[in-house]
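Pair request: fold both.
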Amino acid sequence: MINNIGSIMMEILPENIAELVKINSIYSICVGKRISKVSKPIKFDGRTLTVAVFDNIWLQELSFLKQDILERLNSENLNVKEIKFIHKFKPVSSGKKQLYQRKITEKEQVFIDRFASFIDDEELRESYRRALTSYFKRYSLKDFFLE
């Protein structure tokens, strides 16, 4: 009788895929909950681990933490020689709350209303308003103007 299907799968998978499965299973332990929410190992070629990062700011931050992450992964008896971070959009979630929701400021709401008021078509205006509202739930007005 089969006791552990996971161990059987690890035996029949190609070595690099089996190693990626192992990396994925301990990734959040090595990097922490916060980083594992914004990134995910997606490829391992036996030497280089490719990690998808879902946010440009985190992409830059993780590049600074690269050596530390590499050391943590290898402390778990992995054989990762290099880490390559790439920006990749996060898959659409199934109705779960977005990771970085913030409250829209009064100034941002005025900005949204003012810019939306220039659009004559009501359906397009509401669509534009929803898009800006969604943007400002994640980024600030300062980010919008790249100040």
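--- second member of the pair ---
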Amino acid sequence: MPYSPIQCHIVSIDLIHNQNRVTTMSTINEVTSQADYIAAQRSRLSAQWQAYHRTLINGITHSKIIHNHELICGHNHDARFLLFDHFMIRIQLNDDFYSRDICYCINVATPDQAERLLPFAHATLDENGTIDGSVNNRDTQAVTEHYLMKISVIYQCLFNSMHDNHSAHKELEKIILNR
């Protein structure tokens, strides 16, 4: 039996109302699914960072080839080392939301200045624990070698400043990124 114009209008309002409810339910499901994905990926990346952090500290503190390199107290989210009892290096995952960027910084302040940690190198950590596309974050030797490669520029600066008899701090300023 055909609907009257009033019944047709009521049916169309019901359809619109139900469609909005379906859209709302679909949106809630999508948001929930996206939130779960985001949380899982952040948790996975955080676990990979913690694994890298432990491996790096283990590699540096147990290395027989690295001298004049001391672990110093850092925060939960970074690793800090002191070179030659003078130059502090900080390694941390960048502060951006879901950042995969490992930032290597050095304190370029002179002893009479406030701390000035500036970046001199970067690396990328993925959710599978691979650093710069090839280094396994659980391989102590590979992580240590990767780290030494990153900081080799500091040793070169210090060597150059001593060899050429000029300020180490001025030499280190040359390696700072984003200038």
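Observation on the second member. The radius of gyration is 27 Å.
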